Amino acid sequence: MPLQTLDTGLFKLDGGAMFGVVPKPLWQKLNPPDEQNRCSWAMRCLLYEEAGQLLLVDTGIGDKQDAKFFGHYDLHGEDSLLRSIRAAGYDVADITDVLLTHLHFDHVGGAVKRNGESLAPVFPNATYWVHPDHWNWAIHPNPREKASFLRENILPLHESGQLKFLSENIFPYADTYLLYVDGHTEKMTLPIFQVNGRRVAYMADLIPSSGHVPLPYIMSYDVRPLLTMDEKKNVLQQAADENWILVFEHDPVTEAATVEMTEKGIRIKEQGKLTEFL
Q1: Which of 109, 127, 122, 203 is nearest to 165 (CA)?
Q2: For residues 101 and 132, what is the distance between their CA atoms, to the nearest angstrom?
Q3: In this structure, which long-range contacts are made by residues 20-26, counting pairs with CB atoms below 8 Å and at least 24 apart in sequence?
Q4: C-beta separation of 128 from 166 below 8 A
Q5: Per the confidence metrics, is the pTM higher than 0.90?
Q6: Roughly how many angstroms between the first and final C-alpha of the chain, as a whole number?
Q7: pLDDT above 80 (res 7)
């Protein structure tokens, strides 16, 4: 299988923040909260192989922060990024490219490891890819997002010489289209793969879970929520028209789904594991 999901563990975030203006009596049916109003969320990455190249999309939260930091997010589950890569039959040295959809800590934290007092990229043979406008946004963060852009997750990639900036002409995967969206954060990158005659779109934080498919279900973390709504509408319409497979990075249960137009708007058509669609 050229494309597969990698589970890297679960973490908790406030349910109200994840569902924005949607009332709790509605969203708690989708993802029941704990006593602190936190819901469990996945950190699901993708592994894609094409012509001898091995691409990892996002890296989860990693393990280099201290106990106080991780205590805010209650990491749980048995999976980790490295364990999942090895279970897929590969090792860290086999990864040739890492596409970072954006540089929030739960997407980029696993890209960098701590060696004593120093920091280094986890994947020694990989080129790390990020949109240049998003890179500038992350290293000069606004107050709203500053806590999500941790310098120890970001700067070592540049210092190592392994970082490259995305452009339409140099990303080395011919069967992958990159869609850039700006509602959640500046120039988040969504890869869309062509596999077995199907388009598979990795939703990152545009549509973090199957519960976020209805248009009003938008995270409070988004810097431009009305723009997110427009971007979601456009992606979901095309996904419904062309029968795309959508992969959800943060859904704790549902890996992938297709969508269809209904009298209530676009809704989930079929859902399950990615392998069931391919």
Answers
A1: 127
A2: 12
A3: 20/216, 20/217, 20/218, 20/219, 20/220, 20/222, 20/225, 21/216, 21/218, 22/216, 22/217
A4: no
A5: yes
A6: 8
A7: yes
Show the domains of the chain with their CATH numbers: 3-277 (3.60.15.10)
Cα–chain center distance at 29: 23
Q: Which of 67, 155, 144, 146 is nearest to 108 (CA)?
A: 155
3-state helix/strand/coil string of 78-128? CCCHHHHHHHCCCCHHHCCEEECCCCCHHHHHHHEEEECCEEEECCCCCEE
Nearest to 208 by CA among 237, 251, 179, 238: 251
Report which secondary-structure segment, H or E, holds 207. none
Residue 37 parent element (H or E): none
| Contact (CB, 8 A) for 17 and 78 | no
Residue 33 has which token pair?
């909260």
Question: Which amino acid is it at 187?
Answer: K
Least confident of 104-108, 119-123, 164-168: 164-168
Return the residue matching tokens 């930091």: 69
